[in-house]
Amino acid sequence: MLILILLVVTSLLSSSSGLAPAGPWDPFNYAPQSRTVRPRSVRETVGSVRGAQNLVSQKGEATLSGNGSWLTVDFGIEVGGLVTLNIHPSSKSSGLALSFTESPMFISPVTSDDSTNSAINQSYDGILHVAQPLADGLWTQPASTLRGGFRFMTLVSTSNDAVAISNISCSISFMPHVEDLRAYSGYFYAKDPAFHDCDFLTKVRQNPSSAYTVQTNTVPVNTGRQVPFVRSPGWQNNATLGVAGPIIVDGAKRDRAVWPGDMGVAVPTQFVSTNDLIPTRNALSTLFSEINPSTGALPESGPPLSQLGSDTYHAWTLIGTYNYFLFTGDTQWLQTIWSNYTKAVAFLEGKVDDTGLMNVTGLRDWARLGGGGYNSEGNALLYRVLVTSSELAGYLNQTGLSAAWSQNATALKTRFNDAFWLPSAGMYRDNQTTTLCPQDANSMAVLFGLTTSQEQAASISEGLTQNWNDLGPVCPELPDTISPFISSLELQAHFISGNDVRAMDLMRKEWGYMLYTNLSVQSTLLEGFTANGSLGYRSYRGYSYDASYTSHAHGWSSGPTSALTFYVLGLTITSPQGRTWSFDPHLSGLTAAEGGFETPLGWFGAKWELLGSKGGLKVQLDTPPGTSGSLKLPVFGKVTIDGRSAQLDIDGTLRLRGGRHSVVVVP
Ligand SMILES: *[C@@H]1O[C@H](CO)[C@@H](O)[C@H](O)[C@H]1NC(C)=O
Ligand SMILES: *[C@@H]1O[C@H](CO)[C@@H](O)[C@H](O)[C@H]1NC(C)=O
Ligand SMILES: *[C@@H]1O[C@H](CO)[C@@H](O)[C@H](O)[C@H]1NC(C)=O
Ligand SMILES: *[C@@H]1O[C@H](CO)[C@@H](O)[C@H](O)[C@H]1NC(C)=O
Ligand SMILES: *[C@@H]1O[C@H](CO)[C@@H](O)[C@H](O)[C@H]1NC(C)=O
Ligand SMILES: *[C@@H]1O[C@H](CO)[C@@H](O)[C@H](O)[C@H]1NC(C)=O
Ligand SMILES: *[C@@H]1O[C@H](CO)[C@@H](O)[C@H](O)[C@H]1NC(C)=O
Ligand SMILES: *[C@@H]1O[C@H](CO)[C@@H](O)[C@H](O)[C@H]1NC(C)=O
Ligand SMILES: *[C@@H]1O[C@H](CO)[C@@H](O)[C@H](O)[C@H]1NC(C)=O
Ligand SMILES: *[C@@H]1O[C@H](CO)[C@@H](O)[C@H](O)[C@H]1NC(C)=O
Ligand SMILES: *[C@@H]1O[C@H](CO)[C@@H](O)[C@H](O)[C@H]1NC(C)=O
Prior knowledge:
Blueprint: H1 2-12, E1 36-37, E2 41-50, H2 54-57, E3 62-89, E4 96-101, E5 128-129, E6 137-140, E7 147-157, E8 163-172, E9 187-189, H3 200-205, H4 210-216, E10 218-219, E11 247-248, H5 260-273, H6 278-289, H7 311-328, H8 331-349, H9 376-395, H10 399-420, E12 421-422, E13 427-428, H11 439-448, H12 454-464, E14 468-469, E15 472-473, E16 481-482, H13 484-496, H14 500-516, E17 529-530, H15 559-569, E18 571-573, E19 580-583, E20 592-599, E21 602-611, E22 616-632, E23 638-641, E24 644-646, E25 653-666
Parallel strand pairs: 19-22
Antiparallel strand pairs: 1-8, 2-3, 3-6, 3-7, 3-8, 4-5, 4-7, 9-20, 10-11, 12-13, 14-15, 16-17, 18-19, 20-21, 21-22, 22-25, 23-24, 23-25
Helix pairs in contact: 4-5, 5-7, 5-15, 6-7, 6-8, 7-8, 7-9, 8-9, 9-10, 9-11, 11-12, 11-13, 12-13, 13-14, 13-15
Bound molecules: 2-acetamido-2-deoxy-beta-D-glucopyranose (NAG) (11 copies).
Residues 36, 84, 86, 138, 167, 169 line the site of one 2-acetamido-2-deoxy-beta-D-glucopyranose.
């Protein structure tokens, strides 16, 4: 018991360095110790290869003899950056080429996994030839041929004369502004005895996985995929991605571009893991700088892609602006983009016709089919835009505008329920001429508060499980697809509707699959996969049946990171920087959880544990002085706060001032 208390006290102490406290969660931080990483093992050798293990021990050379002999090294986790190695050719005609892949499925001496474009031959990218004649000595990959995400690298001899190699390393290119990749500002820790790997939750939340995935997506501004795409074979990652760097993009290998929908999940991850939001500000500034001055339309993606024509991604940029402001309280920045922001809200409001619903005409979206006209997903996003815009206008003291947006939000909520609720299904339908009940709009409706009762939310949560197989929910709106992006939203909907255990089941199925499957990198999260777990995500929807094009490090799949913090731990902020917060833990079938995050106001930490079998609860809460919050407890009983007995309000909540509190509930 004494040991336990000491652990509580130490772990709740926040260091002034902006780092999360040290503890038993640290072993799950597999981010590299150094920005220079080296192969951890040899995966494969083919042909005449000598001394391959020397590349791991760093004690000598490996020699490839004969045209086509090759070997593959494994960096152990997803990495990205420029490779350096020593080359020792045996003659002037010796030749060497490199290929890269995230998944071991695409290890090949003739091509990399595809990142430039998808092609049914799965060999768009090809290999990188080292310029001939090979120079004896240290070689570094040219900057424009950067591979942003890979785990396996293959070296192949391209001539009959032998070539020796040694001293392979990769200089990590992501998180260019941070020396120590393991320096997290937040953490989460819980044992999950119900799962085959009881450390699963800590792994999926911490590292390797969700938090590390977003780190691999935080890149220098001049490392974007070249557009128009370079011709096959080849790749080039030296395009400019925005107005400033570092900048947050959708994926490590590809697209390497700013996508605001993706940020809807990736940015909350960033907040609770590194609290490093400059890359987000740079991404948002980039999108606002590309607003269409006459219509107010925002691009669907950042440059050089600068894809146009998506009402939903337009909405995500506005929602992302709110998220950024909530986490940082950066009023100065908000004021600089405000006139463009209001134009962009007006752009969406202009699509609301006399039915009171938005007619979605910018049809591009996260890949789902349909989506046009009076569509529920688009209108759910508009509702969230109006609610958050109203709040932002309030922070800027624009009370009239704030009230007008709020009023329109309320009207839209009523129309939304009239138009889309399908009583026979107990869910929302995609539009008024279908009975298809999509995963996206139903998850968003609960998450954004479009439901009008707890029963309605519960019905949706239950209804969503009809889509589940052993690996996760198969989207009705994109058949044969499991989307960890939309599932990240669904996950939150289950917690919000009070179905914690269901949310945990979803996490174990879907994120368990992504984390452990040997088709992927076992360190970062897939962009998506098919209903049977294969890598052919979007095969029939733009990806040319090219499973090698799928990204294995996509921040939009990182939903568990913020969900474990905001719902399971139960600590979340409700106004900029956490001046107000809420603590509402979800027991989720666990016996204890702890964690925390920081904001510019300081450290927000909590630890809860069930007391014995009687159902009591003990909580340690630590929030900055000067803040205040509301406390809600998941068990009933006699409550004491800091040793004094306390009475909850009629709604079961209690206001608390910031500072350190200990709460005990005895049944
Ligand atoms: C994955 O594991 C299965 C079962 O052990 C094995 O048959 C398969 O070859 C492995 N696949 C890869 C790509 O390593
Ligand atoms: C090496 O093999 C490739 C593929 O078989 C062939 O195209 C190429 O001409 C060969 N190079 C030499 C130097 O023999
Ligand atoms: C080995 O590679 C590193 C870069 O990772 C380089 O700094 C070093 O000089 C190389 N060693 C030799 C002996 O060339
Ligand atoms: C693969 O397909 C792409 C796109 O059709 C084409 O440009 C490329 O030449 C093909 N590569 C090979 C090796 O056939
Ligand atoms: C990218 O690199 C290629 C090859 O070095 C070069 O031709 C091109 O001009 C570069 N593009 C940019 C935008 O720097
Ligand atoms: C606002 O939009 C204009 C185009 O109308 C653009 O030139 C300007 O850079 C944008 N300002 C900001 C701060 O994004
Ligand atoms: C939605 O707007 C488009 C483009 O203006 C129009 O063609 C279409 O008829 C509208 N849909 C409805 C249902 O009004
Ligand atoms: C209505 O939804 C269905 C199912 O998603 C879809 O097939 C159809 O295209 C949608 N209608 C419009 C106008 O987008
Ligand atoms: C809004 O008004 C309050 C009270 O007058 C003031 O403290 C605050 O600085 C104002 N905020 C902005 C962004 O102008
Ligand atoms: C509120 O909705 C009405 C009706 O669609 C619209 O005319 C008005 O511009 C909206 N107000 C704001 C502030 O967007
Ligand atoms: C998995 O599904 C894909 C279609 O998405 C199909 O091509 C593949 O054959 C299936 N794999 C297995 C093992 O059933």
